[in-house]
Automatic annotation (TrEMBL), chains A, B:
InterPro entries assigned to the protein according to its UniProt record, in alphabetical order: ACOT8-like_C, Acyl-CoA_hotdog, HotDog_dom_sf, Sec_Metab_Biosynth-Assoc, TesB_ACOT8-like_N
Domain Acyl-CoA thioesterase-like C-terminal stretches: 137-267
Organism superkingdom: Bacteria
Originating species: Pseudomonas mangrovi
Name this protein carries in UniProt: Acyl-CoA thioesterase
Annotated Acyl-CoA thioesterase-like N-terminal HotDog domain residues: 28-108
Classification via Pfam families: 4HBT_3, 4HBT_3C
């Protein structure tokens, strides 16, 4: 039985350096084609908020702007509670490397109270994870090896004949090795979708997320209750226009609860 | 013929105070039940970026975190280009009143190039604005008098018998008096939807937007070409959970182009 931390926790580990200041370095395990996997970047940014001694409540919203490249080297994260209210708190976060802002982020934390609730969006009616074979994805880019993916539809093949006029992807996914769900792993999972422009054209082109916003619709106990079960991850573009495409996405628990929803803007050069 | 500026331009007027610093004050015309209309706040925040002498390109993304109340008094906006790349720029923006952060925002501007583009989401098939009667909304809250609204569905009545199990609203809308479309008026229009929890329950409760992200899918020339024609505005919640509801929304031109898409997180106490 291994006692070393999960690869995700190794990657997003932070060391407090003083008030509002943390030092970190993502690991090669979460490398992407250029720089680190955006989901790991978003998770390490959120981790600074989660570790901050002044944090109030749990994350409800996170916006990460990918302002510049991140090299395989140390960086600093400055996380500052810009405003603290009675039950909510707003965070300003900046990841700085070699003196330059690489990530500009904001987060909101809140103490939730149980109240009238309703899920309007219906969970997609798909086969359970146990009935969907694991999709071989190794070799695409390093970070994918940290995930077990079971594509239902919208898999990237880079065969032009597979180009379609819609960019929906739906897959069951979990950390590999499995890791109990929490805000950090959920944040990383929200960015596992290949750029929709790849899927539309089934050919590679320069592309990358420039901004991502994530809303959390569950508390820590609800996430913990998901354990290591795969989540259903769904994404599609609404419009791809002159170099910028959007992407809306949802992450569902195995029992059909919408745990998180997100919106991304993705640069592309087609 | 009047030569005074449009009420929106009066409301979001800014005075440069020095490097990265602007002074402003929203007008009573854009007041909401508590504080100013969030759409006017988002527009004045974007205006600081648009007026900044170092701006590169046009807005592609805007996130506005409503951190605290704004009083009917002067405020300062600090807008700083945190990172400037070859064709993109990332902005950190803060609205400060009486020494406290009331708004924490980020924006991205970019020089777009014409390239392969496609609109995946289909424009809703609804009657044209000319065939939908103007909905009387005056009296709800002051800011609504600045808009001409033509509801197709999802109008707020506050009659409990009208409570439904979905929160979709679709309406044709434009500034009143009419104003040629640009990034500023489009930004304000993205926040014209009443909290979805009101519509679900058709009863008032404490509620307000805490975070809004807006992506622009058109350039300034494309917006100008819309002139003063009404836009089709559509919104719905996906989930309302323990005090926080999301809202996804789209703004369409009369000829069916997706001009902007947005995501909001809305606090509610039900």
């Amino acid at each position: 039985m291994s006692t070393s931390p999960h690869p995700l926790d190794q990657a997003i580990q932070l060391h407090a350096q003083g008030e509002d200041l943390y030092q970190g370095r993502l690991t090669p395990a979460y490398a992407n084609m250029v720089g680190p996997f955006g989901g790991a970047i978003a998770a390490v940014v959120l981790n600074a908020v989660l570790q901050h001694p002044q944090r109030l409540g749990e994350p409800v919203a996170l916006t990460v702007n990918f302002a510049g490249p991140i090299a395989d080297a140390d960086f600093e994260i400055r996380a500052r509670p810009a405003r603290t209210n009675r039950s909510t708190q707003h965070w300003s976060i900046e990841l700085i490397q070699a003196g330059e802002t690489a990530i500009l982020a904001s987060a909101m934390t809140a103490e939730r109270r149980e109240t009238w609730s309703d899920q309007e969006l219906a969970c997609p009616d798909v086969a359970p994870a146990s009935e969907v074979p694991i999709t071989p994805v190794s070799g695409f880019t390093p970070w994918v090896d940290n995930y077990e993916m079971r594509f239902i539809d919208g898999m990237l093949t880079f065969r032009p004949a597979d180009a379609r006029d819609d960019s929906q992807s739906r897959l069951w996914i979990r950390d590999q090795p499995p890791r109990a769900l929490d805000f950090l792993s959920l944040t990383a999972l929200a960015d596992v979708f290949f750029p929709r422009v790849f899927l539309r054209r089934q050919q590679p082109c320069p592309a990358g997320t420039v901004s991502m916003t994530l809303y959390f619709h569950a508390g820590s106990a609800e996430l913990a209750a998901c354990g290591t079960e795969p989540l259903l991850a769904c994404a599609r573009a609404q419009v791809l226009h002159n170099g910028f495409a959007d992407q809306t996405a949802e992450l569902w628990s195995a029992d059909g609860r919408l745990l998180a929803s997100s919106q991304q803007l993705v640069y592309y050069k087609a």
